[in-house]
Predict the structure.
Amino acid sequence: MRTIDLIKASFKQPTLLLEGRNKKGFHVFLYLLLLAIVLSLPVIYQATLITRTIQDDGEKIIQKLPDFSIEDNTLVTKEKTDGFIYQTDSIIFTFDPTDKRTKKEIESDATSNVLVVGLLKKEIIMILPRIGTTTDIMDNNVLSIPYSMYQANGLNKQVLEQLLTSNSSQSMWFSVIFFVTWFMVFFNLFVDIVILAFFANLFTKFRLIGFRYKDVFKIIVYAATLPNILTAILQFIWPAISFGSVGVALTLLIYFNALPKRIKK
């Protein structure tokens, strides 16, 4: 059965999803990637809203920034300064060359749809927006980049100005937010389906149905079609709420309804 037919079956005739167990593993993996993109659509939308304002915010941030450079893996300024915090509805930027604020304090600035960037004495902290489904998985949405890394060692005011105010900055920030979040969404989706398939396989064996674990895994992937689309739609409407558990429960329900009474090998 073609993938498009399995997608249609998830809406109209769940029992046909059993045919998904005959799909090649590579095709199932590609479909998982597609489902992750669907789940990431609310993040794409939110990232677009954020990146639209980054250039304007960046110009104001650069005006407040003193000249600085990285020396011996440490942020230093030409003139003594206590740093500052710049905050809008889309970004919270902290410049703290004297280490007055801790990493945990920077993390506490984060809210559901705000990009947080901190230039601290020894490292850069970046916290990606937490939107809907991603709140289930993004305990590690905090990126710490020490100045000892090659990519950060040459950072200075001029380089940061280029990153924040150039015409390409919007696409760059969008790409960072989207691809990192998409990878997290995909990883979480994969883990969820592995776990769901494990318990669904136990239930299937209890029903004396002769499916192998890999068969159950493939069916679960296609059974997740409708729940993932519904979850993405709900995240657009209520971006601050996570509907991950709803998607998991609905996926299992669709799988159980697709099962026949008894099939032997």
